[in-house]
Specification:
2 copies of one chain form a homodimer. In chain A, about 35% of the residues lie in helices and about 25% in strands. By secondary structure, chain A is an alpha/beta fold. In chain A, strands 3-6-2-1-9-11-12-10 form an 8-stranded mixed β-sheet, sandwiched between helices. Chain A has a 6-stranded antiparallel β-sheet with strand order 14-15-13-16-18-17. A two-stranded antiparallel sheet of chain A has the order 4-5. In chain A, about 50% of the residues are buried. The interface between A and B is large, with 40 and 41 residues.
Chain lengths: ~400, ~400
């Protein structure tokens, strides 16, 4: 008997009417046979409401208590869905992180799952009940409630699908799948039927919000097939995320992403000797700032310019750290730009097709978009451009590689 | 080092500002030394808000899930108070029913405490932390969340005070103690300095809302001294509830109570033979309807009238059950009255002083209040009167026994 894990996000359970609609969908799946584990997020807005209460009482709410506070959001949603399922004649049991023994470390607010005990869940499934799981939460060996980080109900769902060897993990959200680009920016964007874990990882990392990055990593590691669907429509398609196959490799580019929240810092006249990068990036990493692209151009005089990108929200802190180090290492100066965007094309086909990057540069040049930085991986090319060209760059790249007449695809 | 249990009710933690005020009070007590366990209710209105969400999804929310739902109210309040205490430099740890191992049976919504494990709480107290406990909740051996019934945060506090051998259990509420009568009805009502468990039990059972009945029973059984205080004032007095002593016996009447939510049912012409009372009251008890006073007057013809009171909210159901039985046992008829009130005087002094009931009847007669039923216990006399005379009866009895010039007291 197939076991399916379904996950419903905050907007999908965002009101009493939405919970009713989700319950109908779950009850239908239950009646059609098979075993069902349903993971829910907090009702939309609830996590922020709770955090706001805490923020009114402390500038830095104590992490252990903040976790106990916000974990109630998912507890409420899970109990409400179970109540509705009972009312529909569909027996259901809600289970919380501590009841499921979703064991984590004690890094409150960003805990890592160490193990999941399936005894209880399998016992409940065995008695013909639907299991409704409060996502986003776990418990330490001491019994303290932890949360797994923002958006981590996806992670709960994938972890359960992995340990229960589920046939699939269905992620229900407010969009009907993964798109070739953000439809709000690219009107011609279309839903992908299939995408590989690697492509999904790049796209999640590059700003596509549909799936949480860590949950895709976990799905890839345990080979859990993901299906992204809309809980707002009866369309049964959606996007399947799984292992790369032959068909995928024939597609040159699967998606175009845009990250408009980047900034750029350049150290000029850095002496080109070993150990300097560590001195520069050590303090930044310790401050928890995620540096994405790093480029160093050595000059003829043994000195180099070193440029990197960081989230715009972290620019001020990053600049302070870099300026402190700049003096110590004798750099000529520090420049920064806060209005930059990162545009990327992603596709496993790049592994076997040459010339994709060159095509990308040609398309952007034709539109007069200047490229400030370039970074590539096996299945991705990212460029940093002035923020004002971000949306334009995304649109022209999408049309070139993924439009109705992708003349450049497969060249 | 003395250990104190403090309990703050829903209005005491009903807003961010109120939580701040409670935290100040707790932090002061912490700094003055001693160990502190603080039990909190849900923020005022929160339990009803959660129940209302559930009610929108089911006519009869599944009890296990309803408990998981409403238990979040106390979890939020406990976490918020702990967050504020940390912000004030007062180390605190919130603990939930399942973390404290407050073990209960599985009667969801009205669970009974079976045991409390003190290991964790003693460990946390030993490290110099304040323990903030989410009241009202427990856990079954299976790990399911239970709730202990409305108002049962008092019970949590008393149970913890009992197992921890606390020096006192301080109940903070929105009134500054136990009064001789409801001050809203009796302007001359005054706060009692001391009252015995037995008197408090009678008063709680008779409609005084300041303490939950079960918590007073538990306090009496384990000899836990209770102190009822206001969290809204800096007045350090309040009312002490404890074992009866000599001084208490010298006071004839400690309080007057009024219950305006009663109704009265009379079966007329009931044959006076063994077993009939069981046939009548068996189905009513099974329906969970609390019958308070029962009076039977045997007539000369071997037939009797049987009258009893029940909460007005249960009148319709009680009538249906009684009418069904009335036919079977050949009663002449069923009458009912839905507008009756029960007025009671309570005092341990009655054990040793005669004539209190007679004085009570005289006072009511002087005001022209007709007495419909009478019931007495060792330390209480209750009368049922027409509801329209309820408040008047309370006032005149209060003035007679507890007024500025209680001529009748001690007679």
């Amino acid at each position: 008997m197939a076991l399916i894990v379904q996950k419903y996000g905050g907007t999908s359970v965002g009101s009493i009417d939405r919970i009713k609609a989700v319950a109908e969908r779950v009850a239908r799946a239950y009646r059609s046979g098979g075993q069902l584990v349903v993971v829910v997020s907090a009702m939309a807005g609830e996590t922020n409401r709770l955090l706001q209460l805490g923020a009114q009482l402390s500038d830095a709410p104590y992490p252990r208590e903040s976790d106990a506070l916000v974990a109630t959001g998912e507890q409420v949603a899970a109990a409400l869905l179970a109540i509705r399922l009972h009312a529909l004649g569909c027996p259901a049991v809600s289970l919380l992180g501590h009841q499921l023994r979703i064991m984590t470390d004690s890094r409150h607010g960003a805990a890592k799952i160490k193990s999941v005990n399936c005894d209880r869940i399998e016992r409940v499934l065995g008695t013909g009940h639907v299991v409704v799981v409060a996502g986003f939460q776990g418990v330490t060996p001491e019994g303290d409630i932890t949360t797994l980080g923002r958006g981590a109900s996806d992670l709960t769902a994938v972890a359960l699908a992995a340990v229960l060897h589920a046939a699939a993990c269905e992620i229900y959200t407010d969009v009907d799948g993964v798109y070739t680009a953000d439809p709000n920016i690219c009107p011609k964007a279309r839903r992908l039927d299939r995408i590989s874990y690697d492509e999904m990882l790049e796209m999640a990392g590059l700003g596509a919000k549909v799936l949480q990055l860590r949950s895709v990593e976990l799905a890839r590691r345990y080979n859990v097939p993901l299906v992204v669907k809309s809980s707002f429509s009866e369309d049964t398609h959606g996007t399947w995320v799984g292992r790369e196959d032959q068909a995928m490799e024939n597609v040159l580019v699967s998606g175009v992403t845009l990250d408009q929240n980047q900034s750029k810092i350049t150290l000029t006249g850095v002496e080109d000797r070993p150990g300097l990068a560590a001195r520069i990036f050590g303090p930044i990493a310790e401050a928890g700032i995620v540096v994405d692209m790093i480029i160093q151009n050595a000059g003829a005089d043994g000195r180099a310019d070193l440029t990197f990108t960081a989230p715009r929200a972290d620019l001020k802190r990053a600049l302070e750290l870099v300026r402190a180090v700049a003096g110590e290492i004798g750099a000529a100066g520090v420049r920064h730009e806060d209005q930059v965007a990162k545009v990327s094309i992603v596709g496993v086909g790049m592994r076997t097709h040459a010339g994709v990057a060159a095509t990308m540069f040609k398309v952007l040049a034709a539109e007069g978009v200047n490229i400030e930085m370039i970074a590539t991986s096996e299945i991705k090319v990212s460029v940093v451009v002035n923020a004002k060209y971000g949306e334009l760059a995304m649109r022209v790249l999408h049309d070139a590689f993924l439009g109705e007449n992708p003349a450049l695809a497969g060249n």
